[in-house]
Amino acid sequence: MFVATKVWIDSLSYDAVIETTEQSLQRLGVDSVDLLYVHWPAGEYDPEQTLGAFDELVERGRTKAVGVSNFEPDQLREAIEISEAPIIANQIECHPLFKQPELRAACEECGVDLVAYSPIARGAVFEDETLREIAGDHGASPAQVSLAWLRQRGCVSIPKATSEAHIRDNYASLSVTLSESELERIDALDDRERRVDPDFGPWNASE
Question: Domain locations in the chain?
Fold first, then answer.
């Protein structure tokens, strides 16, 4: 088991980070988590204060590692520079229909794992003809092809599953290996709109 949780945007002041994390640990019934994320660089987020509190939680043994989520490349680099604890992950929306090449490159450059949420685009991968064709060639589902593409492109996927069948389908993606030509066909797909796009997203704040 690898346990991770996040701190929401209205609890990112120094004291609030400490307090809400302690509350989260109590609700989870654990003394610590493996990874604690800054959920968004928004709301009360202040790099010095927020990341300082995360460093304190690492020192207290409340989390083994620090992660960020939905950080753009410059925000990621700033967090790495400020945080005393290593930033080990940036959790972002990423899938074959929204490939995030700039962020993938930034994470690789910084030695940070890219953790892909919504890895099957909330079901939209089932509607894409290219992914359906590749899936048919492998006797797999488009979801499995999406997860295989992420894995082979160096990303960690965290697919949502609402049933045992979904869990089994997702797990079976580990047996799918795409050829280089198949990877390139997926790379060439046009990106679509984000599936997760709140007004406070950093890409909106900068517009």
Answer: 1-93, 120-192
Q: What are 155's two structure tokens?
A: 């990303």
Under 8 Å between Cβ of 30 and 60: no
Angle made by CA atoms 5, 55, 78, in degrees to the nearest 5: 90
Angle between helices 129-138 and 142-152 (to 10 degrees): 90
| pLDDT surpassing 90 at residue 136 | yes
Q: Are 93 and 201 in contact (CB under 8 A)?
A: no
Give 161-201 pLDDT, tens digit per residue: 889 998 999 999 999 999 999 999 999 999 999 999 999 99
Is 60 exceeded by the pLDDT of residue 15? yes
Q: Which of 200, 185, 199, 198 is nearest to 148 (CA)?
A: 185
Question: Under CATH, which architecture does the 1-93 domain have?
Answer: 2-Layer Sandwich (3.30)
* Number of DSSP helices (H) and strands (E) in the chain, helices first: 9, 6
